[in-house]
Design a protein that fits this description.
By secondary structure, the chain is an all-alpha fold. Helix content is 83%, strand content 0%. Helix 1 crosses helix 2, helix 1 runs parallel beside helix 5 and helix 3 runs antiparallel to helix 4 (85-113).
Amino acid sequence: MNTSQIISHTIALLVVGCIVGFFQYRYLHTFLPFQKIEILRVALLFLSFFWIGWYLGGPPFDSLFGFTALGCSLWLVKGTKGLGFGSKILGLFSYFIGSIGGHLVAIAFSLSTGIDYTGAEVGLWQELWTHGIMWLMMAIPTAILGGYLSGIVLNRHLNHSKTQSGQETIVQETLAE
């Protein structure tokens, strides 16, 4: 990977991480004590694990590490108590599944426009521009699809927690009488 590809990847990763972090914060702050800095932490977690994956083996390890870390940010906050095995798997791989969808969008965009996003025989700034566009074409659908899938799990998890705390309150009130 050359310098312009590293820059465009880093920018796109931060954009996706901030989008996901914003929506996670927006939903979670009413249930859990979150600060707005969590948006940046999600983006930096995603960015870090993507580059760790790239360093350890390149594609597909970069996407596998990065998007799995993005999906796991839910577990770093609250844990998985009360969720079934299927929900845990969906939560863990929600952004990896989103990544597959995002790659398909980027491939379709590339085929329909004829843009060569591999960077072959183009200048640094043109490559940065085209590679950045292609990466965002992959990253934005990934964030949307991954966010939707992890939102299903998040909703189940928070509703289970709410039900658990509600049941405990009823049991405590019954015992007190």
